[in-house]
Amino acid sequence: MKIEGTHWKTLWDEYAEMERRAFDAMPVVELLNRVKNGNYGAYYTLWYSIAEKATLEQAGKTLLDVLHQNTRYLLRYHCAHALLKLMGEKDIQPVDLSADQPDQDDLLKRIEKKLKVLLSDR
Fold first, then answer.
1. pLDDT digits 0-9 by tens, 56-102
2. Which one, 37, 50, 73, 119, has least CB within 10 Å?
3. Quick one: 120 exposed, middle or buried, by C-beta within 10 A (0-12, 13-18, 19+)?
4. Which residues contact 70 (CB under 8 A, 6 or more apart)?
5. Residue environment code for 91-114, b if the CB has 16+ CB neighbours within 10 A, otherwise e
6. C-beta of residue 11 within 8 angstroms of C-beta of residue 2
7. Where are any strands of DSSP class E within 1-122?
8. Which residues have C-beta within 8 Å of that of residue 117, sequence separation ≥ 6?
9. pTM of the predicted model as reported, rounded to 2 decimal places
10. Is residue 110 within a helix (H) or strand (E), and if so which, with residue range?
């Protein structure tokens, strides 16, 4: 599908859209199994499919586990976006949970506590 002279951003968007459609077609269980196996895809679209299809009960713990891993920033950023969306969290931004910063551990603990409360209320 690569076309000579096509701008990289155009190609990225096309491939990301194809990946997103594939993830959107998968059941939530399969998406979460991919996460648990470290198979995140190439374009960060897995996280958006999870945020759209999964419930907090289904995905919350799995997403939080990824945020506790020492993995690439962009992967943690998009994972954090999905978790925060499922939690309805507005005060903390994805970058707060994914970029190496002094208060990141405190924010992760705060999110973890809130997640436990939200899951126990349901």
1. 999 999 999 999 998 899 999 999 999 999 999 999 999 999 888 77
2. 37
3. exposed
4. none
5. ebebebbbeeeeebeebbebbeeb
6. yes
7. none
8. none
9. 0.90
10. helix 104-121
